[in-house]
Amino acid sequence: MVSEGRLPEEDLLFFLTYDEINDLLETRSPNIISRANQRKRVFSIMENYKFPEIMKGTPKPINDEDESADTYEFIADLTMKGIPVSQGVTKGYARVAATLEEASHLKPGEILITYSTDIGAVVSREYGLPCVVGLQGATKRFRTGDYVLLDGKKGILQRLPQPEQNSDET
């Protein structure tokens, strides 16, 4: 559709309805493109909102300003219980990522702690990785570099003492 001049950019397709796509296949329509661009602008704002897991009525974003990391005191042996979705137990260093950019710094062996993922449970299950969801506030209570235990069978994420570093003294 881009090569035919019906869409200015490929990604705009994600902001069109099925009927609008069919209409664009038949004719060029600046009105449809304008609506899609408006949806794209709204999406870039809305994707930063966080909502409660269970809601009734019209969803209202959680005011994240009241939930700063400073609100939580550091607890050395913090344990959080969530919903296990992919079994397995692992220990490793945490990577706390609030954005996709921060998640791009994930290193092999690190345990990703984030607010939300698209199909994270499915990907974890398919790759045989432990996964726990529903750990409300975990991105504020844990920090990148924390040494943690993730138990995908019991639904537990626990901060552990940093492991002893082996030094070769000669």
Automatic annotation (TrEMBL):
Q: Where is the PEP-utilising enzyme mobile domain?
A: 120-155
Lineage top rank: taxon: Eukaryota
Give start-end ranges for the coiled-coil region(s): none
* MF term (GO), any: transferase activity, transferring phosphorus-containing groups
InterPro entries (alphabetical): PEP-util_enz_mobile_dom, PEP_Utilizing_Enz, Phosphohistidine_dom_sf
Write down the PANTHER family for this protein, in alphabetical order. Answer: PHOSPHOENOLPYRUVATE SYNTHASE-RELATED, PPDK_N DOMAIN-CONTAINING PROTEIN
State the protein's name.
Answer: Phosphoenolpyruvate synthase
Organism field: Nephila pilipes (Giant wood spider)
Organism ancestry: Eukaryota, Metazoa, Ecdysozoa, Arthropoda, Chelicerata
